[in-house]
C-alpha cells in the first residue's frame, strides 16, 4: 500500500497576522505543519501499521523553508519525502498547487492520497479536492473516520456534515481530506527525529515535473489577491463586575432585549 | 456573453436552506451593477416543489435536476451535472454555499473547468465589471480582497452573512428541466448518521451558546443546553472542552473548528485564546461570562459578566424565559 500525504507549511495558529502595505506579512512568524495535515500523516501511519506493510511519502510544494514540514513528517515515521521546489512555483494558487501535486503523483505509485481539510493560512480548502479531479480520482472530504477493506480496493469514510455524518464508500485509489477527530496525532520520537538525518528528500523542479513555468506561480494564478486588510476591531463593550451574579445576568438579558434588540 | 449569475441552491433533506436566499439577494445586487439575470439550479431528488419557492425571490430561471440518482450527494455526479450546465449556459458568475456540500463540490467543478474559486467569501462588490470578493484568511485574522481572471467567476458564500430578501409571492420563475447524466460515480453515500437531537446546526445558528474548560465537566453541559433551548440556539465549545472529551469535535468553534457568524454568541467559561476568537469574533453580539476579569474574551465582548458561570447561566436562562413569555 503506497500512501502519499500532501503537507503544507503554515504559520503557527498562535501567530498574530500583520498586514504590511496591503499584503500579509509572514516574515518572522513561526512555521509549522498545517494542523489538518498532522491528522493526515497520522492516518497514513496508522494504516501502514495496521496492514503491516506499505510506504508513506510526504510531499510539499513550497520554498526552501518548507523542508521543515517534510522533516517533521519523516520524524513522525514517513518513509520518503518529495519537495516540489522551483522559483516558478512561488505564488501558486490552489489550482496550480493541485496541478503540481498531480504532476508529481503521476510519476509515483499510490493507493491512497491524503490532504488536510484546509490550510489554516489562506483557508482555501480546495487543493485536495482539485487534486482528485485533476487525477480523475474519487474523493471524500472532511473525513473523521476511515476504514480500508480487506482487499485494499475500497474504503469506507465518515465525513462530517451539518447535523451528522455521511458514510461514504469509495473505490481506491482515492483522495481523502482529513478533519480533526480522525485520530490523535502522535509526537515524534527521539528515534524518529534521529532517523531524519539518514533519509533523503527528493527535490523536483518544473523541468522534472514537465510543467511550463507559465502554467504555475503568481502570474498564472486564476485567483489573485488585490489587497489584504486587518479586519475592523470591535468596540469595547460593557463589562459588569462586583455585583451579585444573578443581578448582572438580569441586566445583560435586558440589554440584549432593549439595546441589542435580539429577543 | 451574458452577465448571468448561476446560484446553486443549497438543499438538504428536501428543505431549501436560507443561505440560498442570501445568495439570491446578493446575486440581485450584482446583476444591478453588471446586468444579466439571476438563475438558480436545484439538484436533488423530489426537489421540484422548491422551484416555486425560489421563484418568489426575483429569480429569472430555475434549472431543475430532479432525479432519484441525485437523492444522496455524490461529488462526482453533482460535479458532472453542474459543469455540464455551466458549459451549456456560460454564466459569468457561479455562487455556491460555503456548506460542507458547497465546499466539497465547488473545488471539483472549478478544477474541471480550470477556473478560479474564492472560498468562504463574506462580501462581493463589483468593480470595473468584475467581482471584487472579500474572504477572511488566517481564520479571519486578516481579510483578502481577491479577483478572478477566469470565467465563470466562482465563489462559495458563507451562510448568515448576507441578508435574505423578502419574498414576493406574485413573482414566479421559468422552470427548465435539465438532463441528469452523473457519469461514473465511484464515491457514494451509503448511510447518513444523524446526530441525536433537533438542535440547529452551528454554522446556520442565529444564536450560539458555547462552553469551555470553565464548564468543569460534561455533566454541566445540560446547563448550556437549557439556555440554548430557551433561545433556540446551537451549542458550541472551545477546543479545551472538545479535547477533554466533553463535547464532540463537530461542536468546536475556532481556527481549527467551525467559523461562525451568529447574531449572538454567548461564551461561558472560555478564556478567548486567539484560535477561539478567530472562529467567533465576527458574531454580531458577543456575551462573555468568565470569572477572570483579565480573560481576553472580554476584549471582544459587547456585554461581559465577571462572575462564576454556574451562578450566572441559570439566571440568564430564567430571565430569557420570562422575556420570551412576555413576547
Ligand atoms: C493548532 C491549534 C489549534 C487550535 N484551535 C482551536 C480552536 O479551533 N478553537 C479553540 O477554542 N481553541 C483552539 N486552540 C486552543 C486554544 O489555544 C486554547 O487552548 C483553548 O481555546 C482554550 O479553551 P478554553 O478557553 O475553554 O480554556 P481555558 O483557556 O483554560 O479557559 C477557561 C476559562 O474558564 C474560566 N473559568 C473557569 N471556571 C469558571 C467558572 N466557574 N465561571 C466562569 N469562568 C470560569 C477561566 O477563568 C478561564 O478563562 C488551538 C490550539 C492549537 C495549538
Ligand atoms: N503547497 C502545498 N503543498 C502540499 N500540499 C498542499 C499545499 N497546499 C495545500 N496542500 C494540501 O491541501 C490541503 C488543503 O489546502 P488549501 O486548499 O490550501 O486550504 C492542505 O491541508 C494540504 O494537505
Walkthrough of the structure:
The complex is a heterodimer of chains A (263) and B (327). With 263 residues, chain A is α/β, with parallel strands linked by helices. Chain A folds into two domains: 2-220, 3-Layer(aba) Sandwich (Rossmann fold); 232-263, no CATH class. In chain A, 29% of the residues lie in helices and 30% in strands. Chain A has eight helices and 15 strands. Chain A has helices spanning 35-51, 67-76, 94-105, 127-134, 190-196, 206-209, 217-220, 245-258; strands at residues 2-6, 9-11, 18-20, 23-25, 31-33, 55-61, 80-84, 112-116, 139-148, 154-161, 164-171, 174-178, 201-204, 223-229, 238-241. In chain A, strand 3 and strand 4 form a beta hairpin. The longest helix of chain A is centred in the first third of the chain and has 17 residues, at 35-51. The model of chain A has no long low-confidence stretch (mean pLDDT 96). With 327 residues, chain B is α/β, with parallel strands linked by helices. Chain B has two domains: 5-177, Rossmann fold (3-Layer(aba) Sandwich), CATH 3.40.50.620; 202-326, 3-Layer(aba) Sandwich (Rossmann fold). In chain B, 30% of the residues lie in helices and 28% in strands. Chain B has nine helices and 18 strands. In chain B, the strands form four sheets. In chain B, strands 7-11-6-1-4-5-12 form a seven-stranded parallel β-sheet. In chain B, strands 15-14-16-17-18 form a five-stranded parallel β-sheet. Chain B has a three-stranded antiparallel β-sheet with strand order 8-9-10. Classes of the chains: A alpha/beta (263), B alpha/beta (327). Chains A and B meet through helix 3, helix 4, strand 9, strand 10 and strand 11 of A and helix 3, helix 4, strand 7, strand 9 and strand 10 of B. Strand 15 (238-241) of chain A pairs parallel with strand 18 of chain B, so a sheet runs across the interface. The complex binds flavin-adenine dinucleotide and adenosine monophosphate. Residues 212-214, 238-241, 252-257, 269-271, 273, 275-276, 279, 289-292, 295, 308-310 of chain B line the site of flavin-adenine dinucleotide.
